[in-house]
Amino acid sequence: MSLKPSLLDFTLKELQSIVKPSFRAKQIYGWLYHHYAENYEAMKNIPKALKEELEEKYLVSPLHIIKKEISSDGTIKYLLELQDGKTIEAVWLKMKETQYDEAGQITQEAKYTICVSTQVGCKVGCSFCLTAKGGFTRDLSAGEIVGQVVALKRDNEHKHNRMLNIVYMGMGEPLDNLDNLAKAIEIFQEDDGLCISGKRQTVSTSGLSSKIDKLGEMDLGVHIAISLHAVDDELRTELIPMNKAHNIQSIIDAVKRFPIDTRKRVMFEYLVIKNKNDDIASAKKLVKLLSGIKAKVNLIYFNPYPGSDYDRPTREDMIAFQEYLVKHGLLCTIRDSKGIDISAACGQLKEQESKQKEI
Ligand code: SAH
Ligand code: SF4
């Protein structure tokens, strides 16, 4: 099936080369990103003839919500359907609660982060990851990446000028779809669109070192998070097979070359798996490996799923690991299991859905 492009695939400049006069393109941009229009009908001040012309070639939105799971902590996990019937996940995460003063007035609004997918499936094939089990289907277009944020903001009635952060940590390997990722990052930054700066966007990668360099050269101002997960190449190759081609040292070297805002740190994600990498010897190696890098480590509990080969570490081991890192000068957090009562890790909601279909 050939996919129809959508209006969300374009930067404002590109839309202005398609839609004349250019103020009309700006108006359409407003409908897309300030009013979250889902169809041409909603665009009240756009001439009918222009809408008909555009409708022949472009969708307004390339995806829609088909399922959502709401967790008691405010996390909402979405299953979205694309025009070819494929499904992806995106997650709405509440990072900070709304703050009130004594009179009940809001002093600070709640803060949110959206976790988006970049591919249907993934080629990297990590042994611990449910997304990997389904193999790779296809890359998402820039519009399909942008569309996830638009759909979630619309669904949560989150005004266009309220800020949020984006993490590319859903399904897929973002750097394996670098061109569309870069385009989406640029579209998010549009002043007449959502105005989400690079600083508010974090690309999580399993470590394609050559692509880390390429992303750095694009100078988009984004942060990177490295899914490190292991401190020696043997274990890392077991967990992430492409570590053979992009080993730990090549990733560390690429990180050192990456243009990083001097006030910020590079995030290293470390998935803690029981009896695999949860020992103090690993923590010791991690400290050594990250010396000389302005790093922050985020420890993640392995989240088991039916048929998974690994187990969740104990809380004691997790805390001992964290304490060792902190004692040796590393900034380290334990990722709180947001949405633990829904399908928490990447790929799990989709998996449930396809199981239900099989029944
Ligand atoms: N492909 C990119 C981004 C998507 S994966 C990457 O690997 O960084 C997003 C995150 O989900 C990764 O940090 C990965 O380690 C984590 N993840 C995958 N399976 C998991 C599981 N079963 N339990 C906990 N985290 C998991
Ligand atoms: Fe792909 Fe990331 Fe899952 Fe690995 S952890 S298979 S890179 S989505």
Task: Describe the overall structure.
This protein is α/β, with parallel strands linked by helices and 359 residues long. The protein has two domains: 1-61, DNA polymerase, domain 1, CATH 1.10.150; 63-358, Aldolase class I (TIM Barrel, Alpha-Beta Barrel), CATH 3.20.20. The chain is 33% helix and 21% strand. It contains twelve helices and 14 strands. Strands 1-2-3-6-9-10-11-12-13-14 form a ten-stranded mixed sheet, covered by helices on one side. A two-stranded antiparallel ribbon has the order 4-5. Strands 7-8 form a two-stranded antiparallel sheet. Strand 9, helix 6 and strand 10 form a beta-alpha-beta unit. The protein is globular, with a radius of gyration of 21 Å. Bound molecules: S-adenosyl-L-homocysteine (SAH) and iron/sulfur cluster. Iron/sulfur cluster binds next to helix 4. Residues 122, 124-126, 129, 131-132, 171-173, 206, 346 line the site of iron/sulfur cluster.
Blueprint of the fold:
Elements lengths: L11 H7 L3 H12 L14 H10 L5 E8 L5 E7 L4 E10 L2 E2 L5 E3 L2 E5 L3 E3 L8 H4 L2 E4 L2 H14 L9 E4 L9 H12 L11 E5 L3 H10 L4 E5 L5 H7 L8 H10 L8 E7 L7 H10 L5 E7 L13 H13 L3 E4 L13 H11 L1
Helix pairs in contact: 1-2, 5-6, 7-9, 10-11
The protein binds S-adenosyl-L-homocysteine (SAH) and iron/sulfur cluster.
